[in-house]
Design brief:
This protein is mainly α. The protein has five helices and no strands. The protein has helices at about 1-60, 70-75, 80-105, 110-140, 150-190. The chain is elongated. The chain starts with a helix and ends with a helix.
Length: about 190
């Protein structure tokens, strides 16, 4: 019986040392790749912003009725101006995502600034979905009888759905982060 106890204890120590070695090396690998992941994420956000800006500038020039208009008339169209105004919410959300990744890179994830940033992203996603729905309704109600708005309305439905999913996911992350901050402050007060 004693032998069985010592064998169990010895195997437990061996497994524990293997686990600690694995966990330590895993943690070191995470720390090494964390900065790389953060810089890749920041580059992806900047790339998304640049692509969105290029699309906003280039798309009005390729629109069907804009081919016969001068440059000023193309960009002075009320619906194009509405699109530019609505895109402000997108770029504000993108900027806040950039700030959130900056907080992650500085190990300040569990701060009230991160919660505020997530709240701003959530509000921007909700506002963007509302603005897209309004644009879809405007096109649906005022389109020319010869035009078929089905493609634009399908894009409106998909982008609204994506914005709502983003808002929901960010709201869940915001709540989890707020709970973690509350638990951390409660534990700091207890110790």
């Amino acid at each position: 019986r004693k032998r069985l106890f010592f064998e169990f204890r010895y195997s437990f120590i061996v497994y524990q040392s293997i686990f600690i070695t694995f966990a330590t090396s895993f943690k070191i690998n995470i720390i090494r790749h964390e900065k790389n992941f953060n810089s890749i994420s920041l580059n992806i956000i900047v790339l998304i912003g640049i692509v969105a800006l290029i699309i906003l500038i280039w798309f009005p020039l390729t629109e069907g009725r804009a081919t016969h208009l001068d440059l000023f008339s193309t960009y002075a169209d009320p619906f194009i101006l509405y699109g530019y105004g609505a895109s402000i919410a997108f770029f504000v959300a993108l900027y806040n995502a950039f700030r959130l990744l900056g907080y992650i890179g500085q190990n300040k994830v569990f701060s009230t600034n991160s919660v505020k940033t997530l709240k701003n992203i959530k509000h921007c996603a909700i506002l963007l979905s509302i603005l897209i729905v309004v644009a879809g309704l405007f096109i649906r109600l005022t389109h020319n009888t010869e035009d078929d708005p089905a493609g634009f309305l399908a894009i409106c439905i998909v982008t609204t759905f994506v914005a709502i999913v983003v808002a929901t996911a960010v709201a869940v992350f915001e709540k989890l982060l707020q709970n973690a901050i509350d638990m951390k402050s409660e534990n700091d007060l207890t110790v």
